[in-house]
Amino acid sequence: GNSVTQMEGPVTLSEEAFLTINCTYTATGYPSLFWYVQYPGEGLQLLLKATKADDKGSNKGFEATYRKETTSFHLEKGSVQVSDSAVYFCALSEGNYGQNFVFGPGTRLSVLP
Amino acid sequence: GAGVSQSPSNKVTEKGKDVELRCDPISGHTALYWYRQSLGQGLEFLIYFQGNSAPDKSGLPSDRFSAERTGGSVSTLTIQRTQQEDSAVYLCASSARIAGIDNEQFFGPGTRLTVL
Fold first, then answer.
1. How big is the CA angle at B88 (ends B116 and B55), to the nearest 5 degrees?
2. Which of A51, B2, B71, B112 is at a distance of 20 to 30 A from B23, taking alpha carbons?
3. Testing the interface with B: which of A4, A8, A87, A99 to mutate, by most B Cβ within 10 A?
4. CA angle, B34 then B53 then B26, to 5°
C-alpha cells in the first residue's frame, strides 16, 4: 500500500537558519503531495501542495518540489522564524477518494530565538 | 465561522463511560473524515463519509467505535465503554468534491479525550 516516510524529529534550529524536512513516499501511481502544518493547540492546516512531477508548491516562504525520480517531496525554508515552530506532516493522496489520504508521522520543529 | 468546528474541545471521562464527539464540516463539503492522533503520533484514519454513499469504516479500531452523519452535514463519533487507550485527540476534516475528486482536507481544532 501507499506510505509516507518523514525524517525523525524533533528538529531544533536557531532563528534564521535553513530548514529541510525530508519526505519520501511509496505509491502505485501518480499521487498528489501535500505538506500540512499543526501549530500548538490548533488543527492541521494545508501549507502547500503539488499535483504532478516537477511541480513546486510554495507558501509562507516554504517550498517543496515533487520529485518523481526520487519519490521525494522535501520541505525547505531559507530562514526560519520562531513562529514556524510546529509539527509538519507530509501526505499523499492518490485516486479520487479522500480516504486514500496517507499522512506521515509528523516532524516537530522548534525554532529558538 | 467558515471553518470546520468540533465540540467539545476537551472531554474527560471515566473508563467504561460512553462519549460523543461532534463535528460541523464546512458548508457544502460532501466528504467528511475522522482521524485519531495519539500523543506524539501521526494521524490514524478512522472513517470517511462521502455524500450519501456508505461510509468507509475500515479504520475504526473496534466495534466500540461508531460514527454517523446526519443530513450529509454534522457528524457524531461515538465511543462506547471507553478505555484508557482511547485517550487521544480526535480530529475531523472535510473536503469538497470537484470533478469527481476529493480536494485537500480542512481540519477542525480537534477534541482532546482523556479517559481516566
1. 120
2. A51
3. A99
4. 50
Phi, psi at B6, each rounded to 5°: -135, 150
Residue A11 has pLDDT above 70, yes or no: yes
Query: Is B110 close to A46, i.e. CB distance below 8 A?
Result: no
Please name the helix (run of DSSP H) or strand (run of DSSP E) that holds residue B2, with its range, or none.
none
The three state secondary structure string of B49-61 is: EECCCCCECCCCC
Which of B46, B107, B111, B112 best probes binding to A when mutated, by most A CB atoms within 10 angstroms?
B107
The CA distances from residue A86 to A12, A107, B56, in Å, are 11, 8, 30
% of chain B at pLDDT higher than 90: 66
User: Rounded to an integer, what distance in angstroms lies between the CA atom of residue B63 and that of residue B88?
Assistant: 18
If DSSP codes are grouped into helix, strand and coil, which group holds residue B34?
A: strand
User: Would you say residue B27 has pLDDT above 80?
Assistant: yes
Ramachandran sector of residue B59 (left: φ over 0; alpha: ψ -120 to 50; beta: rest): alpha
**Contact assessment for residue A89 and residue A103, using Cβ atoms and an 8 Å cutoff:** yes
| Residue-wise pLDDT tens digits, B46-76 | 999 988 888 999 899 999 999 999 887 999 9
Q: Which residues contact A95 (CB under 8 A, 6 or more apart)?
A: A29
Local structure of residue A67 (DSSP, 8 states): B
